[in-house]
Amino acid sequence: MSFKIKSEEKENIGVIIVEGEVDMFTSPGLRDKLVPFFEKGVKGIIVNLSGVSFMDSSGIATLVEGLQWSKKYGKKFILAGLGTNVMNALSLTKLDNVFNIQKHADDAYKELSKS
Q1: How many whole angstroms separate alpha carbon 86 and alpha carbon 76?
Q2: Into how many domains does the chain fold?
Q3: I need a labelling partner for 63 at 20 to 30 A (CA). Which of 45, 72, 90, 115 fits?
Q4: Would you say residue 18 lies in a domain?
Q5: Low-confidence residues of the chain, pLDDT below 70?
Q6: Phi, psi (degrees; rounded to nearest 5) at 73
Q7: 45 lies in some domain
């Protein structure tokens, strides 16, 4: 499966939609999409992972970086639409208790919209 990533900003919320495998070769692309949102004045970032079939430790590390940046810049950071493989990877590393995880991107968007 190929890797696709797109980002958009709507109503002061950064949204990143990821599809495919997030590994040591593709995680820099995810990082490149995250960084501008922390430099902008968005109130929060949603990373929609519903199209991700596989994520290795470098992908997880990129998400942890995003979480750290969100705390540094005072922004909300939400992961949404995690499939079984990605959820298992986060559970194994006990990071499922660290991230704000929403079942659907719409739920994440609603949470950020009311804050």
Answers
A1: 20
A2: 1
A3: 115
A4: no
A5: 1
A6: -100, 5
A7: no
